[in-house]
Amino acid sequence: MSETLEKTIKRLRSSNIELEKDIEEKSKTDEMRKQFISDVSHELKTPIALIQGYAEGLVENVIEDEESKKFYAEVILDESNKMDILVKKLLELMKLEYGKNSLNLTRFDISELISEVIRKSAKLFEEEDIVINFKQEQMYVIADEFYTEQVFNNYFINAIKNVSVIDGRKEIEIDYEKIEEKLRIKVFNTGENIKEEDINRIWNRFYKVDTSRNREKGGTGIGLALVKAIMQNTGNKYGVENKIDGVEFYFELDLEKGLS
Q1: pLDDT of residue 214
Q2: Residue that finishes a domain, picked among 47, 68, 97
Q3: pTM score > 0.85 for this model?
Q4: How crowded is residue 205: how many other Cβ atoms within 10 Å of its Cβ?
Q5: Are residue 141 and residue 19 in the same domain, yes or no?
Q6: What is the CATH number of the domain that holds 205?
């Protein structure tokens, strides 16, 4: 009798634990959905208004020359692309923040990844006459290659957008630093320092002081928030430091020998 009762109690406890997990999961999903809808609604107002305005101009023939019509069409296409990128990044951010994505740890050469990002972004920094200082040195790490590229790419594009001439220099410098069993990747750009009161706030999505939100430069305003979510999932350090002549962002990865 007591043995049967004990088994029944154990089953009830087990069922209760599963029920609590289901409720917690549902609560997280609901919160994620509400946050996503709120963010999308907030950020899509401007591009939707622009698309609507220029589309109405085309429909109502407010312009007649072909060059202006082409410009109107390009604005509509550009804003549509921005909306697409924004929604995709928001979905990725939500998954990371609510623990929906798992890391795929592999061994790869971080210097090759960095070189490829620089190569793909050449048009951006060459047009602005920015000097890139990076010495490729074979360095193997254990990390999620896809998310590592997202982190570095966000830092690098952010540096391109914010670099300015200081003491005759307009440079972006990418460097490594070994810290015990970690590798710190540093992305420095000459330019203005970040105000101390903004150092922690820049990691929040859509934070207005973040100049990467400048629409003319194509920012979505969630790049650093995505970095934060990725790095918190890895458990490694990340951050930003003001230097005398610029700003340095950094993040850490496990060196190959650091994986047990």
Answers
A1: 44
A2: 97
A3: no
A4: 23
A5: no
A6: 3.30.565.10
122 with 199, same domain: the answer is: yes
Are the C-beta atoms of residues 75 and 50 closer than 8 Å to each other? yes
- Helix-strand-coil split of the chain, %, nearest 5: 60, 20, 25
- The two tokens of residue 98 are 């609510």
Looking at residue 54, its amino acid is Y
C-beta neighbour count of 241 within 10 angstroms: 14
pLDDT digits (tens, 9 = 90+) for 181-197: 999 999 999 999 999 88
Query: Tokens 């990002």 map to which residue?
Result: 117
123 and 239 share a domain?
yes
What's the farthest any 2 CA atoms get from each other in the chain?
Answer: 91
Reported as a pLDDT band with limits 50, 70 and 90, residue 78 is confident
| CB crowding 21-35: b at 16 or more within 10 Å, else e | eeeeeeeeeeebeeb
Verify that 125 and 76 share a domain, yes or no.
no
Question: In which band, very low, low, confident or very high, does the pLDDT at 53 lie, cut at 50, 70 and 90?
Answer: confident
Last residue of a domain, one of 70, 97, 124: 97
CA distance 207 to 202: 6
